[in-house]
Amino acid sequence: MTATLDTSNYPGNIINNKFVATAKTRHSLNPSNAQPLYEVPVATQEDVDSAVNSAKTAFKTWSKVPFEERARLLLQYADLVESNRTALEELLVKEQGKPLGLAKIEFDMTLGWFRAFATMEVKDDVLDENDERIIIQTFPPIGVCCGIVPWNWPVLLGLGKLGPAIMTGNTFIMKPSPYTPYTDLKLGELGTSIFPPGVFQVLSGGDDLGSMLTEHPGIDKISFTGSITTGKKVMESCAKTLKRVTLELGGNDPAIVCEDVDIDKIVPKIATLAFLNSGQICMLIKRLFVHEKIYDQFRDALVDFTKTLKTGDGFESDVLVGPLQNSMQYEKVKDMYSEIDKCSWTTALEGGVREASNGYFITPAIIDNPPDDSRIVTEEPFGPIIPMLKWSDETEVLERANRGEHGLGASVWTKDLARGERMGRQLLAGSVWINSHFDVAPNVPFGGHKWSGIGSEWGMTGMKAFCNSRSLWIWKKVYD
């Protein structure tokens, strides 16, 4: 299989370790040129029922498999993915649009995550013990789990759900985005040679597939990554059967730059962390607050560096900003760019839409100190455009940074680490970085505050999110 993985052939969904063809197929578009990609299956309710039944059957035995055996299979699967990664990375560029270098980073991270998950055993916790009894908190698996995967990081955010689910004894159904089904289907195909039937399945479909899964009475947990609007619908749907649910939703991350920073050192990192993947990462910098004492100098340096960032097809060399992933997102970002003239925003860097291109290309824009109630400040554009705002008072900037319903990530940039930590502890976000942004790790919980999500993924917190909690009371001297 390492030499023969065909990334252009999709004979069916992966159900019970078999290809299951569908009467209807569909295709996505390459966002760099808007050309159609390969035909993929469109799952029906019958396909969902079949996958759920297979997962329920597999759970009976997989949940009893020792941790060491699950870890062995996960590591074996990681090795198989790694041996096919070149073809998979190229496929990811075609369907998602990200530069090849970023696709390689996504696979690097995914493989690292898998190898870490294989060491993260959720163990019993002895809560209390005396001569009469012992109380143990145990963590049994939930059952059939489903991961609903977004289009911006389909590999890491797909397999990043799979790993914790199956390592804790659950079976797992993955639903890739209709915009990016290809790589995830191939990852499911590779899984058929490693995992027992029903443990890891992949269903591709249209917009109606999500509700089929969230409403299905045989699915016990949904792990969803996507927009706040869709996340609310997922939660409402899951409530009908009281499913367990983890939601990782949108962000509008603030970055606060203090007056003592070394501008030349941090500007390249901040610009990259604003425009990476064309701004299509929930935890990128979305609002940039810069102290008024250095504002003009910082703005000019940021503009100069951003002008060096190359926009283009993901297979071109040195590209950082690829296309927007799909026409819907392209139109949303174009609408945000149209606000520049409508609202008379001042642009430090104009940016713009490449209308002559067949792909969904938009070059980076920096908005110079717009009002705090502007759309560009209050909404997450999910594209290569950011506002830069002045601040002078620490208490005030923290209040401004904490405004709104988002609370995914935030950062403070300063040479004074004590000041940075003090400010960081006041930011309402699930991840806060001092002198960095968008650092993630498999052993560190990842989730949001407020409308940016419910629950956490990764870390032991995320592993336990795929478990129930059971308090086991054992009385020692009842029959003495």
From TrEMBL:
This protein's UniProt keywords: Oxidoreductase
E.C. number(s) listed in UniProt: 1.2.1.3
Domain Aldehyde dehydrogenase residues, every copy: 24-471
Gene3D superfamilies membership: Aldehyde Dehydrogenase, Chain A, domain 1, Aldehyde Dehydrogenase, Chain A, domain 2
GO MF term list: aldehyde dehydrogenase (NAD+) activity
One protein family per Pfam: Aldedh
Species: Oidiodendron maius (strain Zn)
The organism's place on the tree of life at top rank: Eukaryota
Protein name from the UniProt record: aldehyde dehydrogenase (NAD(+))
PANTHER family: ALDEHYDE DEHYDROGENASE-RELATED
InterPro entries xrefs: Ald_DH/histidinol_DH (IPR016161), Ald_DH_C (IPR016163), Ald_DH_CS_GLU (IPR029510), Ald_DH_N (IPR016162), Aldehyde_DH_dom (IPR015590), LUC3-like (IPR044086)
PROSITE patterns for the chain: ALDEHYDE_DEHYDR_GLU
Active site: E248
UniProt enzyme class: oxidoreductase
Catalytic activity: an aldehyde + NAD(+) + H2O = a carboxylate + NADH + 2 H(+)
Similarity comment: Belongs to the aldehyde dehydrogenase family.
